[in-house]
Amino acid sequence: MLSLLFIFLFGIAEAAKDILSFRYSKSIFSNYNKNFWDPQASWINKYKKNKLNNSTDPWYYFGLYKPRYEEKFPYSTTFLVFLTDGWHLCKGFSLLFLFLSLVLYSPLLSIWGDIWIYFIIYSMSFNLFENKLFYK
Q: Which of 6, 3, 11, 19 is nearest to 124 (CA)?
């Protein structure tokens, strides 16, 4: 039953991501810190300004990943990216709520009945927040 709450919250976080991506200027988020919430400007927050990553350290992410620009702080382009801007913060919450709903899932009806219930709860929260509460 608790997983239904997390599916509802998952819908809210997904709505926030969508409105930031596609209708930021018409959203309530445009009233707040643009350097954090405006995706056109905030994506750069994870990097040191205009500083190419010239690191030659072979241990950097075990040689699997090297960001183009130098990170603002360690792991600001990977698992701590949710601290850098609004879109990634919403994505982090979105994933957290989805994973919690999976871990805490307990059957209500049948598998297909539960899928419909979860889909309806998600759709209601997503549409309510994207089209009404997050929209100016």
A: 11
pTM for this prediction: 0.86
Side chain identity at residue 47, one-letter code = Y
**In the numeric block, which tokens belong to residue 83?**
């601290």
pLDDT tens per residue across span 1-28 = 899 999 999 999 999 999 999 999 999 9
pLDDT tens digits for 68-114? 778 888 888 888 999 999 999 999 999 999 999 999 999 999 999 99
One-letter identity of residue 48 = K
List Cβ<8 Å contacts ≥24 apart for 110-118.
Answer: 117/4, 118/3, 118/4, 118/7
Q: How far apart are CA 112 and CA 36, in angstroms?
A: 40
In this predicted structure, what is the pLDDT of residue 51? Answer: 61
How many CB atoms neighbour CB 11 within 10 A?
A: 23
Distance CA 78, CA 80 (A): 6
Amino acid at 1: M
Residue appearing with tokens 């100016």: 136
Residue 43, phi then psi, degrees to nearest 5: -60, -25
Backbone φ and ψ for 53, nearest 5 degrees, come out as: -85, 105
